């Protein structure tokens, strides 16, 4: 009934769903190749066509020439013909896929058309791309254009609007594009061979849009959550951490200030307004320059001797092994169930691993505060405490392919090296991580294409749409925090008592962050 309703709503005749004429591809799209004198290689579609013709002729003979043909034989032949037709249009749509003698699935018309390597996206859309067959030559007029024109820099894949940004360019020697470090995060770019496309908009309208909408100074926030994206990262963090840590003899670290909290808050607001509001680009660029300069002066590099194993690890592991041995005895004598033994064993080794993690930072501070591993992880430049713990502590408990925790922990760390058993146990998570990453990447790309196809007819015509619909805030957390001012959201209504502070937000509603003017409640 649902299918019939769709037929009525779209004015589709049901007879249109039945093929009376079989579409046949041109020979150029289903070629036949001669490999040897007596050996041919043909397209899968040719083989499916051959089966359709053979089964259709057989059915015709059964219906015309034979008089006493059993009804079951005719029905069976009709099913075979329908199976061949399904394999031609979309192989496997009805369950079992049609295969060749080598158990390989035939490629149907749908497989030839759809996907990234299909006829539409690979062949037809390639004709729209500009191909440079000869060596490019820089003309003198290009220098004149680039003096005043903004250029668009594009890096694929474009997962959000920050994948294309406008810049004022400078021609330099060499074939490498010199990209500013503060915009790398928006492009998700690194310097290991990434390729980017440079486009020069020539018309006045295109230049105006590039300057007002796509200029890098206009794209300093995440489009989704409003957090700053043009912010210092990695080497800048390590340089600033090196600058602000250590022994500062002769530096006055305190000052005589009034105890009035209002005075301190006013001074803080003045500083924040000066740096963040009025000096946004200059502030980040100066912080970047300072961080790189100090990172160069620190000369931070990572070596194997910098991975210092925690001294207390040995007796901690011995204590955990003793507890596990006692637990194994209780299980052997029937005092502890197998499930309870597994739970207690996991708790023992988890507690040991966590204690080693807590001992990690004090060990670095006592041995070498300027250890490169400690600087990179503790400053937030690269890595985290969990990764450093696996380097100098212990890898700890691992999961099997089914997601269950293995009660045999990896006692070694990556600095000491793993045994054969520990290496095999650790392979489960590594393999799962690689597979999950590939699956998530393909799924995200496919969902993005579907989203674009669904919403491509929507046009935003005004900055403030005046909607009264919002999201109810029932958690009791404040919704008027400083870090949410830049999320294009503001309060719709308050349902609390009259005169109540808007900072409570217990029964408030927050406007959805789409099409809203950047404002504070």
Automatic annotation (TrEMBL):
GO biological process, one term: DNA-templated transcription
Pfam family, one: RNA_pol_Rpb1_1
E.C. designation(s): 2.7.7.6
Record domain RNA polymerase N-terminal: where: 15-244
Region (Disordered): 498-521
Keywords: Chloroplast, DNA-directed RNA polymerase, Metal-binding, Nucleotidyltransferase, Plastid, Transcription, Transferase, Zinc
Function summary: DNA-dependent RNA polymerase catalyzes the transcription of DNA into RNA using the four ribonucleoside triphosphates as substrates.
Family under the similarity heading: Belongs to the RNA polymerase beta' chain family.
PANTHER family named among the record's database cross-references: DNA-DIRECTED RNA POLYMERASE, DNA-DIRECTED RNA POLYMERASE SUBUNIT BETA
Protein name: DNA-directed RNA polymerase subunit
């Amino acid at each position: 009934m649902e299918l019939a309703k769709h037929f009525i709503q779209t004015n589709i005749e049901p007879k249109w769903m039945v093929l009376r004429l079989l579409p046949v591809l041109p020979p150029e799209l289903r070629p036949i190749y001669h490999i040897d004198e007596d050996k041919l290689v043909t397209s899968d579609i040719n083989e499916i066509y051959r089966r359709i013709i053979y089964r259709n002729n057989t059915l015709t003979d059964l219906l015309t020439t034979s008089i006493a043909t059993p009804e079951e034989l005719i029905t069976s032949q009709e099913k075979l013909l329908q199976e061949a037709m399904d394999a031609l249009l979309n192989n496997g749509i009805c369950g079992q896929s049609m295969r060749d003698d080598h158990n390989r699935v035939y490629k149907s018309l749908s497989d030839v058309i759809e996907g990234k390597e299909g006829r539409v996206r690979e062949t037809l859309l390639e004709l729209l791309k500009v191909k440079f067959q000869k060596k490019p030559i820089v003309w003198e007029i290009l220098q004149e254009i680039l003096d005043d024109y903004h250029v668009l820099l594009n890096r694929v894949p474009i997962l959000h609007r920050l994948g294309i940004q406008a810049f004022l360019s400078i021609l330099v020697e060499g074939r490498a594009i010199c990209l500013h470090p503060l915009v790398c995060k928006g492009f998700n770019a690194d310097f290991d061979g990434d390729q980017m496309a440079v486009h020069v908009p020539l018309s006045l309208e295109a230049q105006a849009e590039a300057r007002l909408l796509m200029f890098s100074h206009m794209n300093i926030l995440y489009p989704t959550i409003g957090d700053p994206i043009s912010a210092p990262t990695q080497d800048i963090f390590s340089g600033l951490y090196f600058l602000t840590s250590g022994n500062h003899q002769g530096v006055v670290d305190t000052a005589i200030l009034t105890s009035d909290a209002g005075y301190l808050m006013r001074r803080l607001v003045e500083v924040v307004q000066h740096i963040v509001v009025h000096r946004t680009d200059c502030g980040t660029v100066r912080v970047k320059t300072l961080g790189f300069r100090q990172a160069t002066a620190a000369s931070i590099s990572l070596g194997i001797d910098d991975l210092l194993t925690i001294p207390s690890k040995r007796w901690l592991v011995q204590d955990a092994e003793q507890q596990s041995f006692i637990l194994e005895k209780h299980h052997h004598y029937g005092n502890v169930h197998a499930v309870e033994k597994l739970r207690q064993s996991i708790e023992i080794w988890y507690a040991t691993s966590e204690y080693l993690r807590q001992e990690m930072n004090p060990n670095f501070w006592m041995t070498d505060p300027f250890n490169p591993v400690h600087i990179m992880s503790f400053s937030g430049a690269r890595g985290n405490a969990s990764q450093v713990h696996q380097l100098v502590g212990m890898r700890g408990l691992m999961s099997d392919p089914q997601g269950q925790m293995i009660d045999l922990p990896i006692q070694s760390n990556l600095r000491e090296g793993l045994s054969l058993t520990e290496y095999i146990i650790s392979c489960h998570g590594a393999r799962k991580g690689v597979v999950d990453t590939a699956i998530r990447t393909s799924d995200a790309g496919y969902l993005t294409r579907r989203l674009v196809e669904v919403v491509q007819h929507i046009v935003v015509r005004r900055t403030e749409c005046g909607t009264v619909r919002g999201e109810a805030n029932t958690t009791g957390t404040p919704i008027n925090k400083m870090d949410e001012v830049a999320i294009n959201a503001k309060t719709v209504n308050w349902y609390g008592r009259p005169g109540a502070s808007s900072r409570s937000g217990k029964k408030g509603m927050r406007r959805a962050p789409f099409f809203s003017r950047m404002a504070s409640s």
